[in-house]
Amino acid sequence: MNFIALKMLVGDRAKYIGIIIGLTFASLLITQQSAIFVGIMTRTFSFLTDVGLPDMWVVDPQVQYIEDIKPLQDTQVLRVRGVAGVQWAVRMYKGGLKARLANGTFQTCVVIGLDDETLIGGPPEMLQGKLSDLRRSDGVIVDAVGARGKLARVLPNGQRVPLRVGDTLELNDHRAFVVGICRITQTFQANPVIYTTYSRATTFAPQERKLLSFVTAKAKSGEDPQTVCRRIERATGLKAYTRDEFKKLTFIYFLKYTGMPINFLTAVALGFLVGITIAGQTFYNFTLDNLRYFGTLKAMGATNRALLRMILLQALTVGAIGYGLGVGAASTWGILLSGRTQIAFRLPWQLLVISAAAVLFICLSSAALSIRKVMKLEPAVVFRS
After folding, report:
1. I need a surface site. Which of 44, 119, 168, 193 has the fewest CB within 10 A?
2. CA-based nearest residue to 283, from 1, 23, 3
3. CB–CB of 187/111 below 8 Å?
4. d(CA 84, CA 226)
């Protein structure tokens, strides 16, 4: 019976291809738009992902997400160090400063100031130079995307010359000497990222009474970071988050206060609509065209259960093929473009499961319409003329 079901499926070549095309486009849209959404949301806390050594972040209680910086007094780092369970705590600066380029234009950059003694929080991968080179006079490290993109020098003929080690920048009327190029996770705003020491960053920054952005800390071995965070809050009156808690706080903020979720949800819903409309309707018409065959099988003694199994096999077969082609096309598109453009694309295995469940729902919904028609079919219909 299974062989007969597959023979019927591929026998009508036009409808067979039409069903697969509909499911392929549905799977492609659902997977692609969901992966872009996940990629964009991941970029909102990319800075936390890159700074891997600290497991606790201490901030002002009114901070709503990672970019919502409310400066603290420098003395707060000493108070955090005195809390039981804290192995070490260091200062970190993060702010947006304008860099003056060689052609006189200005470009907003994200400047990260690392603790002068330990340089904790530096870039995850150095392409040129060493992290310790930041201790050189006026030294800064620039991310590779920014160096060959927005910070590149533009020649009169329009050619872009990437920023290199040995070049100089002007940050808020201060000279900065490029001592290294690094690779980091792309940020949400896509602005160039510049690393330097904390003392130098606060010199670059406009003078304010408070300049400390974060206190990053590490819990002692055997201590639970969440428990230590609660101790820090009681002792200092500040807010302390573990890395995962800070990521979640940022994720929820963008989910709640931006239009991204509804925009991508609309695209995913369009994928469902394409699948149900094209694949569902085509599969239903395919069943109607083959009612005489199902009637013949019923007249020969086939049970409703056997016919149900045949329809489900047909639906799942085209679903598996359409899902594979759609996910393959989305993955290929993401691999080809995400490394060469600013497109955010992230495809975790959980997203593949969700996409598979969506395609399965479309297939079962389409099969349900066909099953109802076949279950009510009278075997005698095949003998009517």
Report:
1. 168
2. 23
3. no
4. 13
- Per-residue confidence band for 341, with pLDDT thresholds at 50, 70 and 90: low
Alpha-helix runs per DSSP H in 45-74: 46-50
Q: What is the mean pLDDT of residues 289-304?
A: 72
Tell me which residue of 63, 59, 61 sits closest to 91, measured CA to CA: 59
Domain ranges across the chain: 2-44+259-383, 73-237
If one compares 258 and 250, the residue with the highest pLDDT of the two is 250
pLDDT at 242: 96
263 or 226, which is more confident = 226
Banded model confidence at residue 214, pLDDT cuts 50, 70, 90:
very high
- pLDDT, tens only, 299-308: 777 777 787 8
Inter-residue contact 232 to 84 (CB < 8 Å):
no
What is the secondary structure of 260-320 as a DSSP string? HHHHHHHHHHHHHHHIIIIIIHHHHHHHHHTHHHHHHHHHTT--HHHHHHHHHHHHHHHHH
Rounded CA separation 43/41 (Å): 5
Of 80, 36, 29, 39, nearest to 57 by C-alpha is 80
Asked whether the beta carbons of 357 and 32 are under 8 A apart, the reply is: no
Task: Give yes or no for a contact between 228 and 85, defined as CB atoms under 8 angstroms apart.
Answer: yes
CA nearest 189: which of 110, 274, 295?
A: 110
CB-CB contact of 193 with 203 (8 Å):
no
Q: How far apart are CA 170 and CA 181, in angstroms?
A: 17
CA dihedral 245, 247, 249, 250 (to 10 degrees): 170
Residue 206 CB coordination number (10 Å): 9
**Do residues 179 and 169 touch, judged by C-beta distance below 8 A?**
no
Residue 218, pLDDT score: 96
Smallest Cα–Cα separation from 193: which of 109, 118, 134, 267? Answer: 109
Q: Which residue bears the tokens 């919904």?
A: 365
What would you report as the CA-atom Rg of the chain, rounded to the nearest whole angstrom? 29
Average pLDDT of every residue of the chain: 86
The C-alpha atoms of residue 162 and residue 154 are separated, in whole angstroms, by 9
